[in-house]
Amino acid sequence: QVHLVESGGGLVQPGGSLRLSCAASGFTLDRYAMGWFRQAPGKEREGVSCISSSDGSTYYKDSVKGRFTISRDNAKNTVYLQMNSLKPEETAVYYCAADGTPVPGCTVVASPYGYWGQGTQVTVSS
């Protein structure tokens, strides 16, 4: 069975950091573009960042550029999202997802992503 399991969420003060992990089982990540999404209470899900399978190119939502870093360790079948200088408005459930579409690059549009994790809660509060 295919599973994506996120971890690393929690409570952090404004300006703090967290590193989210997304571990895959049942398939190998190296052929998939990977994305991180988040959904705050009462808001629609939004794409935060993605990393391609082919050349490791990345994309970031404008508001997180310079603060978030996505990376992948294919040997560990895991993708990470390092989040620095977190803001209260970034409180949300964060999800990772896998896109097996055989195209270059990656997208933070949700529709191509066929596999999703269950999410991990990130709360930014003092």
Could you characterize what this model shows?
By secondary structure, the chain is mostly beta strands. It is 0% helix and 47% strand. It has no helices and 11 strands. The strands form 2 sheets. Strands 2, 4, 5, 6, 9, 10 and 11 form a 7-stranded mixed beta sheet that branches. A 4-stranded antiparallel beta sheet has the order 1-3-8-7, with no helix packed on it. Strand 4 (33-39) and strand 5 (46-51) form a beta hairpin. It starts with a strand and ends with a strand. The model has no long low-confidence stretch (mean pLDDT 95).
Write the layout of secondary structure elements.
Layout: E1 3-7, E2 10-12, E3 18-25, E4 33-39, E5 46-51, E6 58-60, E7 68-73, E8 78-83, E9 92-99, E10 115-116, E11 120-124
Parallel strand pairs: 2-11
Antiparallel strand pairs: 1-3, 3-8, 4-5, 4-9, 5-6, 7-8, 9-10, 9-11
Quick summary of this structure?
By secondary structure, the chain is an all-beta fold. The protein is built from no helices and eleven strands. It has strands at residues 3-7, 10-12, 18-25, 33-39, 46-51, 58-60, 68-73, 78-83, 92-99, 115-116, 120-124.
